[in-house]
Amino acid sequence: MSRAKPSEVIDVVSPSTLLLRNGWIVELSGIDIPGSYGEDISPLAVTARDILKDMLVGERVDVYQTKDRDSGRMNRMGHHLVHLSRNKDDVWAQGMLLTLGLARVKTSISNIDVAQEMLALEDKARQEKIGIWAEERFRVLNPDETEEALGEFAVVEGRIESVALKKNRIYINFGKDWRNDFTVSIAPEDKRRFSKAKLDPLGWGGKIIRVRGSIRSYNVPNMEATHPQSIEIIDKPPVDDPIGNNSEE
Description:
Layout lengths: L1 E13 L2 E4 L4 E4 L2 E2 L10 H14 L3 E6 L14 E7 L6 H7 L4 E2 L9 H14 L24 E7 L2 E5 L2 E5 L9 E4 L1 H9 L11 E11 L1 E5 L6 E3 L16
Parallel strand pairs: 3-6, 11-13
Antiparallel strand pairs: 1-2, 1-5, 2-3, 4-7, 5-6, 8-12, 9-10, 10-11, 12-13, 12-14
Helix pairs in contact: 2-3
């Protein structure tokens, strides 16, 4: 990440939006705080906001952004996308919220910094069932449950039934009938990111993966995986139960 000029936190505007002394309105990058949007934010989102206020208001912070000056430093509202660390003791804002189970990881193509560190903190909070991970509605879904989360950001975990390549798009199928079951797809323009990371999704048949993103409906529940950090490989395929990767989409 690239380090910007340090500043002081003046106010916490929302559970993930802060105002700095230098005039910047900043958005905490790489995380999602469920229930933090709309007029009635959730009790856990209120807790996240209050913790940030106690932790950061009046404090000097180190400000970090993605190294790419042309992409990923601003959102559509003109807010700066940042990671914040309290100057006096290096307490990391995103890390604190993930550790307390008040946020989940939500990287993007342009903001993938410290993804593995964030995923590790999220995983620990989830295993301890604290914060959002104690609530049924924020659980990790299995592929058969994805229809109930259409239009929402979700984390889904399941074993891959098959992987197919059609018109240069990769389809990761979680059921025997791709016409009816949850599918994760990787667009042609996104495949190069996986190749650069030395990942070959076409060889993932039989593996258990955890994938995160918005669930859309394209006849069946579908999720676009745009970058490698949105997918975690949980295990390898069983050696005595191979699943073919050459089914046709």
